[in-house]
Amino acid sequence: MVAPIDDLKKVANAKMPYGKYEGHYLVHLPEFYLVWYRQKGFPKGTLGVYMQFVLELKINGLEHLLIHLIQK
């Protein structure tokens, strides 16, 4: 099932709320950082779900789908 465009926009515009990459869009986080979180355990809640989704997109070379939805 494909995510509705509004959900994709939410993921595209989500930012990391803490840590080394605080304030960065999740889609701009380095893949190694997301892989590290996968090994450590993603945060609970929406942030963790978004990070997992972004990692899957990055692994499959599809992060450009979110980059075009960032609202500046």
What can you tell me about this protein's structure?
With 72 residues, the protein is an all-alpha fold. The chain contains four helices and no strands. It has helices at residues 5-12, 31-40, 46-59, 64-67. The radius of gyration is 11 Å and the shape is globular. The model has no long low-confidence stretch (mean pLDDT 93).
What secondary-structure arrangement, pairings included, does this model have?
Blueprint: H1 5-12, H2 31-40, H3 46-59, H4 64-67
Key features?
mainly alpha; 72 residues
CA(first)-CA(last) distance:
28 Å
Q: How much strand content do the residues show? A: under 5%
Q: What's the tally of helices?
A: 4
**Residue windows where pLDDT falls under 50 for at least 5 positions:** none
What's this model, at a glance?
By secondary structure, the chain is mainly α. It is built from four helices and no strands. The protein has one domain.
